[in-house]
Specification:
about 120 residues, seven-stranded mixed β-sheet, 11 strands
Length: about 120
């Protein structure tokens, strides 16, 4: 079993910055992919940014150039630095991890953290 604990988020004015972080904990696992998705009421959860175990990032077009995903492999933690935030970035942000435990692959989600950018 792996637990994901998110931190950060909150309210920021348009043009401002926030950082959200997600730490994975458990035993005998390795991270395959870790990243962030977001969801607004009535809509599906969509990809924001992910990074794989080769440190290759993947960004949604809507956040390219504004958001940066990074990892601290020693701490099994992923950070999402969000700059130049816009009202349309308002959402609940969820951390997702795909992990390997022995020969199996599992997917885990965090509890979500609210990011609000007033218009």
């Amino acid at each position: 079993q792996v637990q994901l604990v998110e931190s950060g988020g909150g309210l920021v004015q348009a043009g401002g910055s926030l950082r959200v972080s997600c730490a994975a904990s458990g035993s005998d696992f390795s991270i395959k992919t870790m990243g962030w998705y977001r969801q607004t009421p009535g809509n599906q959860r969509v990809l924001v940014a992910t990074v794989d175990d080769g440190a290759n990032p993947n960004y949604a077009d809507s956040v390219k150039g504004r958001f940066t995903i990074s990892t601290d492999n020693a701490k099994n933690t992923v950070h999402l630095q969000m700059n130049n935030l816009k009202p349309e970035d308002t959402a609940v942000y969820y951390c997702k991890a795909i992990v390997r435990i022995r020969q199996y692959t599992y997917q885990y989600w965090g509890q979500g953290t609210q990011v609000t950018v007033p218009s």
